[in-house]
Amino acid sequence: MTQANQTISVEDQIFELQSNLEKTRWTLRDMATMGALIASIHDLEKILSVVMEMSIRTVEGEVGLIQLSENNELVTRVNWGVDDAIIKSIIYKDNEDISSYCYNKQEAIIEADFNHKLEFGPKIKSFLALPIQSRAHCHGTVLIINKSTGDSFSEIDMSNLEMLMNFAAVSIDNSLLLKESLERQKFEQEMEIARQIQETILPDREAKIDGVDIGTAYFPAREVGGDFYDMIEINASDFLFVIGDVSNKGVPAAMVMSAASAIIKAQLDRDPSVNPAKLVARLNNILCSGIIKSHQMFITLFIARFNMEKRKLAYCNAGHLPPLFKKSENDEIVELKSGGTFVGQFPDLDFKQGEITFNTGDSIFAFTDGLTEAENVSGELFGTERVKQVFSTVKDVTPGEFCIRVKEWINRYAEGASEDTVDDFTLVNLRIT
């Protein structure tokens, strides 16, 4: 080789090197621009759409798709010229399709000479498959099939696509975190609204009824439930006791709870002599007329009317856990069951009414199902029999102290169990003095 040829060869190599460096510089600049653009988007669907377009353009692909993992299954979220039915028909290795293999192995795949002919669709000559993986999580895969130039994908294509997927994974992480944060904020706002509604309904202090010692307690869980109770003086001798539970949580339960409380008071104002069974029937019809629109929502309810002069108690139990009536003379416990089903779903129902006579020292213990459904570390429910045991055992304390003792029993019983196993519950203990 002459000196001139050697000089030309060196010059060619220098020129080619400079050209490659310039191309690399432009590629990195494009990648930085694309990364900044992807990072500026917070909506997941928009992120995936932009990433799909950039992926196709970056490696000069013909068709492709992006799949994300949902409930342990890859689901196509955006596609460009190919659908997941075609991809699932292409068995790659270990009896898995290309995308599933890439996701399960969490490794990039490049096939420069695949040469697979689809029954319906183009011949697959070459493809790239990469996991979309952040530090903490593999979100899914991107798959690009065939170069538009007719060439095969190269290691440089793989490297560029990996760089783009790094940006994509971070943006997906941020999008999901933002969504989770917004949902948490919304949930907390709804719970605060529900608490405020509930606080306006529940008595803000111990009710004062002549001839009755009353203890009440409400123990909220993390989510505001639909528990409510009230003591309503009707006249000099009569008062109404109400305890109920809406079968839902949050704002919907609080709104229905508020409506039920308002309806009961409105019916009493309209007809102060109404008995509990008729009051429950009227409440049921009003709730069914449009206030409760969900088939999953209803109210269990117990209403008792005390006549202190005649020492009579008339009550109606609408699907609620039966309150316990204890006679002071022999400590016999009776469940107050008479009534009917829950309210808010079936109009024009008839409800039965129960009646009992009470004497000085007799007491009633009413509660919501969060008490009986509290679980211990083995998953066993506290149950009604244990409630009866507490009612029989704890004596010589005021109704207010009794409610505190019940909570202590529940705390001991549920010790070591998850917080999620203890729902909110309400306790009301009335003793005739």
How would you summarize what this structure contains?
With 433 residues, the protein is of the alpha+beta class. Helix content is 42%, strand content 26%.
Give a written overview of the molecule.
The structure is a single chain. This protein has 433 residues and is of the alpha+beta class. The chain is built from 10 helices and 20 strands. It has helices at 3-39, 44-59, 84-88, 98-105, 155-201, 250-270, 276-291, 369-372, 383-393, 399-413, and strands spanning 61-70, 73-80, 91-93, 96-97, 109-111, 116-117, 123-124, 127-133, 138-147, 212-219, 226-233, 238-246, 299-307, 312-318, 324-326, 333-335, 339-340, 354-357, 363-367, 425-432. Strands 11, 12, 13, 14, 17 and 18 form a 6-stranded mixed sheet that branches. A 5-stranded antiparallel sheet has the order 2-1-9-8-5, sandwiched between helices. A 5-stranded antiparallel sheet has the order 10-20-19-15-16. Helix 1 (3-39) runs parallel beside helix 5, helix 2 (44-59) packs antiparallel against helix 5 and helix 6 packs across helix 7. The chain is elongated. The model has no long low-confidence stretch (mean pLDDT 84).
